[in-house]
Design brief:
This protein is of the alpha/beta class and 281 residues long. Helix content is 27%, strand content 31%. The protein contains 6 helices and 16 strands. Helix 1 packs parallel to helix 2 and helix 4 runs parallel beside helix 5. The chain is globular.
Length: 281
């Protein structure tokens, strides 16, 4: 049984189950009304952005706990910004990565080299590793990279070939290009706004073009995919499609919305966008 479920959403909130804990958190996209009003009383804790960032009921949760989501076991913990160390809307991407890396490794008869940029707590890295890929995990936050390493251990992947890198993404890509390191598959989820390892400012509107140019420069001679995701308002699937079309070689581009989904009677919640480049027509 999967440890994540979207239970309901509405009135700017979402109700989710992570393992044995039900949480009530903000969700700006959920402008409709809740449909399962009785279930909201089951929430153990609630996060609010009104009157500052604050959890209510945080003391009812453990310091951290584990949840297995789409085949990847993750350490979860409440953060001061309302996050938990997982973005469940990306879990279908994990499935795609695992399957695609498995297929490509079998066809090539050697492991796919996979690069995960802005890699957060490592769900995608671990899914690719489960598919046999040799991975490189890059994030500017030392704490998040350590969190990802803990997740690798939870999945018995601590000895799998993964390079764990704390660095500014654009600087890292520049060095990899100079070193001649190349990657068959690349995933990137640029933040709307962020800081690099050395305090470098990353604003997606200005930095995204450079990032994609550098991604193109480190693609191998036999690339398998480039997967771009975004949580930035205004960056629609077509925006991501056009960015990939302009900055990558000729190929096939697919795109869509990332969705939080639950049971068939639960309204899906749009939670970001994605586009992926694949070789061939």
């Amino acid at each position: 049984m999967d440890d994540y479920t979207l239970l309901d959403s509405g009135n700017g909130r979402k109700l989710e189950r992570f393992g044995e804990y039900i949480l009530d958190r903000p969700c700006a996209q959920a402008v409709w009304e809740p449909e399962k009003t009785a279930e909201w009383s089951q929430a153990v804790a609630q996060f609010s952005r009104k009157d500052g960032l604050q959890w209510r009921g945080r003391d009812q949760l453990p310091e951290d706990w584990q949840a297995t989501v789409n085949g990847v076991t993750m350490k979860l913990a409440t953060t001061d910004f309302g996050h938990l160390g997982i973005f469940p809307e990306t879990r279908s991407i994990w499935d795609w990565l695992r399957e695609h890396c498995t297929k490509e490794t079998a066809q090539r008869q050697e492991p796919l080299t996979f690069l995960n940029l802005f890699a957060y707590s490592g769900g995608a890295t671990l899914a690719a590793a489960q598919g046999g890929a040799h991975c490189c995990h890059v994030d500017a936050s030392k704490g998040m990279v350590q969190w990802a390493r803990e997740n690798a251990a939870l999945n018995q992947l601590e000895d799998h070939p993964v390079r764990w890198i704390v660095d500014d993404v654009n600087k890292f890509l520049q060095r990899e290009e100079r070193r001649g390191r190349r990657y068959d598959g690349i995933l990137l989820d640029p933040p709307s706004f962020g800081r690099g390892k050395g305090g470098e400012l990353y604003k997606i509107e200005q930095a995204m073009i450079e990032t994609l140019e550098r991604v193109n420069a480190v693609l191998s001679k036999q690339p398998a995919f480039v997967y771009l995701t975004s949580h930035t308002p205004g960056f629609t699937p077509i925006v991501l499609h056009n960015l990939l079309r302009q900055r990558l070689p000729a190929g096939r581009i697919e795109h869509g919305e990332m969705l939080l989904t639950g049971q068939p009677d639960t309204a899906p919640v749009p939670s970001g966008t994605w586009a992926r480049w694949l070789p061939g027509a």
